[in-house]
Amino acid sequence: MAFCQSFMNELYRHIGQDQDVPAGDIGVGGREIGYLYGQYKRLTKQYEGVLTGKGLTFGGSLARTEATGYGLLYFAREVLKANNETLEGKTVTVSGSGNVATYAIEKAQQLGANVVTASDSTGWVYDPEGIDVALLKDIKEVRRLRMSDYAAERPSAEYHEGKGVWTIEADVALPCATQNEVDIDDAKNIVSNNYLALVEGANMPTTLDATKYLQDNGILFGPAKAANAGGVAVSALEMSQNSERLSWTFEEVDNKLENIMKNIFKQIEDSCNKYEQGNDYVAGANIAGFEKVAEAMQAQGIV
Predict the structure, then answer these.
(1) What contacts 36, CB < 8 A, 6 or more positions away?
(2) pTM, entire model
(3) Which of 227, 255, 273 finishes a domain?
């Protein structure tokens, strides 16, 4: 962590942001990828799609920034649909305010849900009128401020320090901030508040005991290994465009992403049905992934 903090501070100084990165807010975005890709080309004298998330002027793909958040909602919609529910009209809680959270909020609202929370490493906001995505983007992406600043400019929002997103009554939880952010106490809050589902946007945001508690209490659970695959999916689409020297429209990429996420859920659902796992999508994702690897190994004579 110390090395990563030091590296990011130096990287920011190289690209003109002469201040330290706040602890807990270390991340790699478009400007960092741009710098890294520039150094890769300088050192190797090669122009390849070795890094994804590049700028649009040097091989990047439209919809890559939105991909993980959008993909998360396409997956969440399939989870609800398979259980005779719909996303439209639901109240949604989201943690985080980076790319995944911001574009999960944006897509959720486009699909008819009301997202009432967002957070960062210092605190969180509850906005019963719905998170103002334009303001959120301005605060976090342009001015690089805190969620307290969002609340100061949004009369309907309440700011709270620390954590507490999952104390809010809602229908769907989308943890999009960091690993292990949903612990057993959070899981108990989610159950007591009668949530229908939790679908993971961050990498492994739910602890193992919290995951088990949620599943044991009937909460539909979408695991990150499937639900947040949208980012890597569009990275693959970016590499495809680089290889073919093409540039697809935003709508083309978004449609491909939606179909990819639907197909991922379909494979999980098929595994659940085949092996009588009900709606245990953790088991379904594990089985589907294992079978794909096992079949490839058999086909290639490895086993």
Answers:
(1) 51
(2) 0.89
(3) 227
